[in-house]
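sorry for the late reply, my laptop died twice this morning and i had to redo everyting from scratch. anyway the thing you sent over, i finally got around to it. pasting the sequence first so we're on the same page, its 652 residues, then the predicted structure underneath. double check i copied it right bc i was rushing
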Amino acid sequence: MKVALVGNPNSGKTSVFNQLTGLNQKVGNYPGITVDKKIGRLNGDKNISVLDLPGSYSIYPKSADEEVVTRVLTDRNNPNYPDLVVVIADISNLERNLLLFSQIHDLGLPTILALNMIDVAKRRSLEIDIDKLSELFRTQIVRLNARKGIGIKELKEKIRSFEFNGSLEPILEGEFDRNELLTIPPKTVQREFAEKRNRRVSQMVRFALRQHGEDIFSRNHRRVDKIMTHPVSGYLIFLGILFLMFQAIYAWAEWPMDLIDNVFLGLSRGVKQTLPAGVFTNLIAEGLIPGVGGVVIFIPQIALLFTFIFLMEETGYMARVVFIMDRLMRPFGLNGRSVVPLISGVACAIPAIMATRTIDNWKERMITIMVTPLMSCSARLPVYTLLIALIIPDMTVGVFNLKGLVLLGLYLAGLVAALLVAMIFKFMVKAKHKSFLIMELPLYKMPRWENLLVTVLEKVKVFVWEAGKVIVAISIILWVLASYGPVDRIDEAVNRIPKPVNELDISGYENKVAAARLSNSYIGIIGNAIEPVLRPLGYNWQIGIALITSFAAREVFVGSMATIYSVGENFQEGESLLKRMQNERNPNTGELVYNLASGVSLMIFYAFAMQCMSTLAIVLRETKSWKWPFIQMIYMTTLAYVAALITFQILK
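ok and here's the structure:
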């Protein structure tokens, strides 16, 4: 049995889905399109699958998300076509929510109406006659407080016991033809149908809904909104939240990251001590373990980042950010709805670009797609963290941690670059129609911590698994390339190193031999070939190799550096990757490779460069043209090189 959950945005549909399925969920794409779909098994019943459809106001689609809903509900040949539809309705906005319900019911689909947020209705002094509403809308009704799990057990029972006799009488019998819903008429006709249907729904709701007393709850929310959406205080609060987020990412994640780093260092040391010396042991100790450790170490920071984004969405604050940012975005060719993809891009550009489907205006959608990858995503976070730890001293500026301020500065640099590039595209991309922003500000609410756990676990799992597969594969390739090379060339380089005169010189001799072997390996040959192009930026050949490999995915940089600096490494000394990189010196000048100038230059390069093949693939699918990802790749790489060059030349 296939059950679809449908509802307006902000109706609590995701909370209901999480309550019905728990952790038994999978995330994928609808066939042929890049919109996310969530599907899970009903808790306690493996024979019932639950599909969480995107939020929609009507089956007349105005965005790609709504188009998915319409396609699933109207096409019987669709593999996701449901046997039962559970419509989640916000009880405090009943008229608007029941418009969608009436459309779905009149399609002839079996339905259950779930009235969510009964706690909000009580606080707003709203009284619902459930029996009357059930009679008027010809459906079974369940009252829910999904955030606390109230009514979920009853909803599960109704789903399990639901029986459909094969026919449904339309709610608005005699006035509406089912073809009105199935044929998707022209826009002007859609508006007439929707207005006519909305008037009837409004009349019916008045028979079942009563307001008793003053709505103090909503009045208090409006008072809070005067502060949160104020032209001055609104921006200050938003900036303060960003400060808190990036300070927390450093302050709270430091000790678990140190713990993970020491665990993987111990694993490498243990493998070297336990397994017999040889190629296989070196591959595990110098290739696989440092590569995997380069991903796992950043789980605490990734989890914190997604936690803050979740809290902004779950509490209703993200909608306020969209509202206050609309005026700021307009001069740059964007609108308030562009903020959601841009902020989502802080987590990952791929779902963020998918989220642009909610932007109706083609020009603003295209501009948003083109600039979203400039927002510093979670894949850049490991790179930033490693480089900040290398070159930024551990000190405070006032009450703020300097490392956290630098991290915030990098994220703001991405935002500023996105806005400036958007302004350029505003004049390059032509469109006939101007857009406007109409949106609902949901009520403020406390987040459901169970939802937080499910969301963060899902995001971390995706990050570790998707990034891990790439990093492990590249780590093995890099280890092979760094461990082997033209035999004659390596031997000649080693033979040119003077033999140690006494025991005190043995350690230095071994380090020089290891460096010579690495420099003359296959990876060293490639790195030395590209080094002249990168030298003006302050980079050596090791950084060049990491730049090339991380074009597959940015976070590969850390795994690549871990592998390169682990080849031939003596783990008995217990020296972490950070220490090995801090001690790296230019063999020609004797200066530290990772100094303030080169480190900041490298961070700036990663802030702007397009180093994610998956993002380019999504842009291709969303725009249906090779032109846009090609332009994106060229302009971002050029911007990254020029900005990094200027940064290094100023700071050196």
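Residues 2-213 form a domain with the Rossmann fold fold (CATH 3.40.50.300).
thats about all i looked at so far, will dig more tmrw
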